[in-house]
Amino acid sequence: MTATVRERPERGPAPRRRAATDRALPADRVAALVARAAAGGAEPVTTHAPATGALVADLPQSSPADIDAAFERARAAQQQWARRPLAERVRVLARLHDLVLARQREILDILQTETGKARAHAFEEVADVAINARYYARTAKHHLRSHDRMGVLPGLTTAHEARRPVGVVVVISPWNYPLALSVSDALPALVAGNAVVSRPDNQTALTTLWAHELAEEAGLPADLWQVVLGRGRDVGAPLIERADFVDYTGSTATGRDIAAQASARLIGCSLELGGKNPMLVLADADPRKAADGAVRACYSSAGQLCESMERLYVHTDVYDEFVEAFLERVERIRLGAELSYDSDMGSLTFARQLDTVVTHVEDAVAKGATVLAGGRARPDLGPYFYEPTVLTDVTADMLVHREETFGPVVSLYRVDTDDEAVTQANDTAYGLNASVWTRDVGHGRRVAERIRAGAVNVNEGYTAAWASVQAPSGGLGDSGLGRRHGAEGILKYTNTQTVAVQRLLPIAPLPGMSDAVWARTMTAALWAFRRVGIK
Ligand code: NAD
């Protein structure tokens, strides 16, 4: 079967093409941001704007000596910081919340320039940092509080449990949501009394360095947050060798490597990895609302979002209506990456992302899939633009059926029952996010409970669960280990310490008492305490 690609009008104005030496951002601002990196000892790397090809930055890279120095500064600063009153640490986050909202124009420009995404998708990242800063500013005291615990011999033994910072947390973040993923994970680590050494992806380093500048303005002590630069394969191992905890967001394959390195050192790690997320449109769903939601859920940041939907299971009762409404909306998506809100979907970020998208679509078409929308690269708009794409007739032998595309490609499947939808949704090694659409919220909740994923959104694609940061976020199976957000998102950066005090009598035979008498006495005491409640 050959691809059927619908004719459509041109979408949105093309971004101005530029020579690779044109500057995408003001040179003095780039220089000021780059100077904040703990780098310089290794060969620099040049980055370009994906949407236009313009030069973004010549980035110094971090050598092992740079990394050593960054850790030395971070450890010294952490000792001071952990002793500061929590209220003082909290104030930094509260100020950062205000500053990121007030200064959003510049970071939106930087985010769009470095990633090629549409401005609305860049704004999601600004909102994410504000939401997390506010949440941890308001709840750190509650999460980090100490607890009196029941002693082994109540009245004679008291126990006290406290939270201590782990020390220096390494945050290795990817390029697709660079502000959200490098900053929002650092905030709870910092407020818990840790230092942070961040390694942003080179492609999006300026975004993290901008946040670093803002954090200092918000009152974060110099040196507490270090930013090192380098390719993952060059700096990953040296960072993990020095870390007290590693927070990694990226692909499953790299996540496994990082887990192995962390386990060899017996340090904790948190891994937020890939997904092949399903959206279920149930028989009682409103097809138009579900179609609106599908557009938001499938094409944010051109599908380069770990939480985005790549599989749509639609009940046969609403299939035709849903597909018509969905395609109509997909056709209207305006492609472009101008520094304004005039486009709906931007460019892919790298040639390799475009290659994966092209490979998945070509493989699917060659094996019999039908392209209902999109299915074309758009070099007329920029080197890595690809149209929002909808496939059907997708079968299990196609790459797109099971592998994460991480691009603007979604496959449509018709299902006859909830059971079939749930079975197919769960037929994956991943378990990050899912979405269920229905007019009956109770029905939605019951279906959600049967889906094997760290988050399920009812009547939304991903933002409801993701942005409800009081609740944890993270994946099952190949989608990762550990959680961000909520209590788990801050407690993972702490160790517990128990201080127990024994009074009056030791927990040992009294002078002159034999071990046998001691054992009988203890047995009687344990019987007596058997009904004492432990909270
Ligand atoms: P990747 O694993 O190749 O790279 C991700 C980041 O890890 C890059 O910045 C890279 O430099 C770094 N890295 C690579 N090798 C490393 C190593 N040995 N040590 C330390 N760091 C190393 O993944 P990618 O293809 O660039 O990113 C997309 C993937 O990330 C997708 O699978 C996506 O689902 C996943 N992702 C997951 C989440 C989440 O929250 N679950 C968020 C964003 C992206």
From TrEMBL:
Q: Give the Aldehyde dehydrogenase domain ranges.
A: 43-499
Superkingdom of origin: Bacteria
Top class in the EC scheme: oxidoreductase
Identify the catalytic residues.
E272
Record InterPro entries? Ald_DH/histidinol_DH, Ald_DH_C, Ald_DH_CS_GLU, Ald_DH_N, Aldehyde_DH_dom
* Transmembrane feature ranges: none
Catalytic activity, EC: 1.2.1.79
Indicate the family of this protein: Belongs to the aldehyde dehydrogenase family.
- NCBIfam families given in the database record: PRK09407.1 (NF006916)
Q: What is this protein called?
A: succinate-semialdehyde dehydrogenase (NADP(+))
Q: Which organism is it from?
A: Jatrophihabitans endophyticus
Query: Source organism lineage?
Result: Bacteria, Bacillati, Actinomycetota, Actinomycetes, Jatrophihabitantales
